[in-house]
Amino acid sequence: MGLSFFSRMAIGLAGVVAALIGSGHVAVAEMVPHRAVYSLTMGKGDTSGRFVNVGGAVKMVLEKTCDAWIIAEQINMHIDTQVGGRLLQDLKYTGWESLDGRQYRFAAHSRINNESKKFMGKARSDLNQPGEAVYSKPKKMKMVLPPGTRFYFGLTSWLIERARSGATRAETVVFDGTDEEGPQRAVAFIIALEKNSGAVDKGLGPLVDRPGWSMRIAFYPIDGRGAAPDYEVQAVILDNGVAPKIELVFTNFTAIQKLEKIEALELPNC
């Protein structure tokens, strides 16, 4: 498990939590700008018992401007191993995505123990022809994005629109720029939440007192043909984009991200 693995893990987790609009490829979902705090805890472990504890917190701010969505996020996480070791990760991410989902700018700084990496760049997407991602860090490079690629923010908005249409399965290509691996294929299975199912803590206020879905999302290499995904996310996603609970599923353990505090932010006066 190298730096890229844990960077992808944290950003994959955050990418669903962000729950942003930004795709011009579908009808617009009514996302809510907000500030939120999440806890991170250990979920299930496998029989090997290699990982024994997960802890930490996630802080994020999602804002809307007249032309884009902006997110600032900080993740502090530790993973304890059976032999007494501890993996420490601090990750800071800032992203900007135009309201039509075609333009994207990203910056991420991930530190795991004493290993650190920075990623920065911009990208563009087009529905009918290939797009492009251009990195300025950690080195200058370009990569082609498949037509219709969705960025960090647009994924959840698109999934909500697919869920509203009654779809139980959805597949798309996503790019977040948080490592050098490029775009991924995302496959989601969607189940509507039953009313009063207990999946959401209504004590957190009106922002979570909304209908929603349980979504199982698997992320694969864009050209990969293997049956196993890079990672999976089991998330409760509400129709306003808020994600009260997320379980990140890996081979050896799961990590649970639970909403502890949330407040709405004002919309811009455009």
Task: Give a nutshell description of this structure.
The protein has helices at 3-18, 154-164; strands spanning 34-45, 51-64, 68-81, 86-98, 103-112, 115-124, 131-137, 141-145, 150-151, 169-175, 184-192, 212-221, 231-238, 245-249, 253-264. It is mainly beta and 270 residues long.
Overall mean confidence score, pLDDT: 84
The number of distinct helices, counting runs of at least 4 residues, comes to 2
N-to-C span: 45 Å
Q: Return the string of H and E elements.
A: HEEEEEEEEEHEEEEEE
**Ranges with pLDDT <50 over ≥5 residues?**
1-28
Give the tally of structural domains.
1
Strand residue content: over 45%
Instruction: Kindly state the percentage of residues in helix.
Output: 10-25%
Strand order of the largest sheet: 8-7-6-5-4-3-2-1-15-14-13-12-11-10-9
Model description:
This protein is mostly beta strands and 270 residues long. It has one domain (3-263). It is 10% helix and 51% strand. The chain contains two helices and 15 strands. A 15-stranded mixed sheet has the order 8-7-6-5-4-3-2-1-15-14-13-12-11-10-9, covered by helices on one side. A hairpin with a 2-residue loop joins strand 5 (103-112) and strand 6. It is globular and about 50 Å long.
